[in-house]
Design brief:
By secondary structure, chain A is α+β, with helices and mostly antiparallel strands. Chain A has a domain of 194 residues: 3-Layer(aba) Sandwich (Rossmann fold), CATH 3.40.50.300. Chain A has 11 helices and 10 strands. In chain B, the strands form 2 sheets. An 8-stranded mixed beta sheet of chain B has the order 6-7-8-3-9-10-12-11, sandwiched between helices. In chain B, strands 2-1-4-5 form a 4-stranded antiparallel beta sheet, covered by helices on one side. In chain B, a hairpin with a 2-residue loop joins strand 9 and strand 10. The longest helix of chain B is centred in the middle third of the chain and has 18 residues. The two termini of chain B are 37 Å apart. The chains are: A alpha+beta (298), B alpha/beta (324). At the A-B interface, helix 6, helix 7, helix 8 and helix 10 of A face helix 6, helix 7 and helix 8 of B.
Chain lengths: 298, 324
């Protein structure tokens, strides 16, 4: 039996939006609607879907950046050697939890404090979490810069974010081809050596394939299919998963890619109806799909 | 045999910076035929966008085309003055910039902004004619005619990008440069936009220069392609040939570092190090320092960079052809 580092059960994140200044009517946006998954130690789960499907909201709720509105998140507590609900965490424990769960953002450039140097920015989290002494921390900063290919690090430490070029910014945000694989390898090595687990959020299944043991496909706040990576790619069942896979460009000019077309509005209507009373079903090989009726769309 | 629309020969472009001259485009030559699409691929900073900017001569103030020629439909563009260039831009060559969808003026309706571009080039056309034109362009790129009267903030990213493509087509250019037109979009939208570009290109018989760091997109979108490294073209030829028999060590690395959802899962290779600084003039092969398995000639930087023909129409730099 695999040991889980995190277990998510019926997670919900609803936002209330008002219909306008004079309107009393309130609408509920279900950004994340009743999703469940778990990640074993050292494994990675890919969360894929289009922008706006709730991938990032899920991650933010897990990191306690935005409070969830429903459901349970449990993580493995090293001291008690048991799963612990994050709702029960206080002060020191909460701080420790935040250190153990970290988020790497899409475009760090935009989240860098423009009035701090690169050195200050990278030092800050190390300071807050009291990691090593000052010398250790400074060495760590140099290592981190080397890892992302900003060499020699000495040149970058005193710079301000605006002094980084577009290319360097891309480098940090992992778009660049050459550095992307290095960063992916680095993350995979960390997973192996330190038993780090990832919730890897992307819209690119090709990248997810190399990073993740399992993949969960999200559509409009719900998980519609979840399976081991190769199983999902070779045997997709849900029409949305098929659509997503068939949208990825293939690096082979002789490959004739056929897009699997689905009607989004129909799909949306069907998926919206699906709720807690219709949990994902196991169709074998630990492959789960949403049970709403999609036959008409296939 | 279709005719050549654009021919670039031995183009060199420098940026003057405080720390010295940066030779951003080195001896770049290629040509694009009518209705053909030509891909430029490489890492960020390799000079792809600098080439595009040189073609339109929209380069920054500190940039200078030091030599070479750019011939569009029989007319030399290098050395033209600003008013002559204004006529060529948008009319002869237009461009879809990287992140262009964020360049819309937020307080002017989308249709009005396109109308402005048409008015600049065809002042004699009536408002009704222009509206008709924009409607047909919108239809072509899959936008509803009602979008003409919308403000940019009312459109999604994909819609804004479609409108940018309509803008680029508004003055019936012969060549359209698409510089990473889908980088900021997610995969499903990217797929739709790529299809739209392909459809429009076929319909209008456009020549397309497609710039991307994503080799998978280049595979699907182009007939001919060039791989750029440190300002130079290191491999150029028909796209299917470059993919089936890549010759330059850098091209092979690019191909082997690209993940795919189809076929067997293969081990990806990573490319260590970073591109050389272009401030100091590089003698010999620019890729040697990063070449994973250099031949003796490559290691000793014995060979000048020079494209050699490997098979008809397929050229690669002679230095890294034999490297691992």
């Amino acid at each position: 039996m695999k040991k889980n580092v995190i277990e998510v059960k019926n997670l919900e994140k609803y936002y209330e939006v008002s219909g306008g200044f004079f309107s009393r009517k309130k609408d509920i946006v279900k950004a994340v609607d009743d999703i469940s998954f778990e990640i074993p130690f050292g494994e990675s789960l890919g969360l894929v879907g289009q922008s706006g499907c709730g991938k990032t909201t899920t991650a933010r709720a897990l990191c306690l950046l935005d409070p969830k509105t429903g459901g349970d998140v449990k993580f493995y507590n090293n001291e008690t050697q048991d799963m612990e609900n994050i709702d029960n965490l206080q002060d020191e424990e909460l701080k420790k939890f935040r250190r153990n769960i970290q988020m790497i953002f899409q475009d760090p450039y935009e989240s860098l404090n423009p009035r701090w140097t690169i050195k200050d920015i990278i030092l800050e989290p190390l300071n807050i979490h009291n990691i090593g002494d000052l010398k250790d921390r400074e060495e760590a900063v140099v290592e981190i810069l080397k890892t992302v290919g900003l060499t020699p690090p000495g040149n970058y430490l005193p710079r301000y974010p605006h002094e980084l070029s577009g290319g360097q910014r891309q480098r940090v945000s992992m778009l660049d081809v050459s550095i992307r694989i290095s960063i992916m390898d680095l993350m995979l090595n960390l997973a192996k050596d330190l038993e780090v687990s990832y919730l890897y959020i992307t819209h690119d299944l090709a990248v997810a394939r190399y990073m993740c043991n399992r993949i969960a496909v999200m559509f409009n706040g719900k998980i519609v299919e979840i399976a081991e990576t190769e199983e999902l790619l070779n045997n997709p069942i849900h029409p949305y998963t098929k659509r997503l896979i068939s949208s990825i460009p293939v690096p082979d000019p002789s490959y004739d890619r056929k897009v699997y077309d689905v009607n989004y509005d129909e799909l949306d209507a069907i998926i919206s109806k699906h709720g807690t009373e219709n949990p994902l079903v196991d169709i074998g090989n630990e492959h789960y799909i949403a049970t709403h009726d999609v036959k008409g769309l296939i | 045999m279709s005719k050549e629309v654009l021919s670039v020969k031995n183009l060199n472009m420098h940026y003057e910076t405080l720390s010295g001259d940066v030779h951003a485009v080195k001896d770049v030559s290629f040509s694009v035929k009518e209705g053909e699409s030509f891909g430029l691929v490489g890492e960020s900073g390799c000079g792809k966008t600098s080439v595009a900017m040189s073609l339109l001569q929209l380069q920054a103030d500190n940039a200078k085309i030091s030599s070479g020629s750019i011939v569009l439909d029989g007319v030399e563009l290098v050395g033209m003055n600003e008013s002559e260039l204004r006529k060529v831009r948008w009319d002869g060559i237009s461009i879809v910039f990287q992140g262009a969808m964020n360049a819309w003026n937020p307080v002017v309706k989308v249709g009005e902004q396109i109308r402005e571009a048409i008015r600049e080039h065809y002042p004699e056309k009536s408002k009704a004619e222009n509206t008709e034109k924009i409607e047909s362009l919108f239809k072509m790129v899959g936008l509803d005619a009602a979008v003409i009267d919308r403000f940019p903030h009312e459109l999604s990213g994909g819609m804004k990008q479609r409108a940018v493509i309509a803008l680029a087509l508004s003055c019936d250019p012969k060549v359209v440069i698409a510089d990473e037109p889908t980088t900021a979009l997610d995969v499903v939208i990217q797929d739709q936009i790529l299809n739209e570009i392909k459809k429009v290109q076929e319909l209008l018989g456009l020549s397309l220069i497609y710039i991307s760091h994503d080799i998978a997109v280049i595979a699907e979108m182009t007939d001919q392609m060039a791989v750029m490294y440190a300002g130079s073209i290191v491999e150029i030829g028909p796209t299917d040939k470059v993919f089936s028999t890549p010759k330059h060590a850098y091209t092979r690395l690019l191909l082997e570092s690209t993940p795919s959802v189809v076929g067997e899962k293969k081990k990806l290779r990573s490319l260590d190090g970073e591109p050389p600084s272009l401030i100091n003039e590089i003698t010999g092969c620019s890729f040697s320092p990063r070449c994973p398995d250099p031949s003796d000639d490559c290691k000793n930087q014995n060979k000048e960079m020079k494209l050699v023909e490997i098979e008809p129409g397929h050229f690669a730099d002679n230095c890294c052809v034999d490297c691992g």
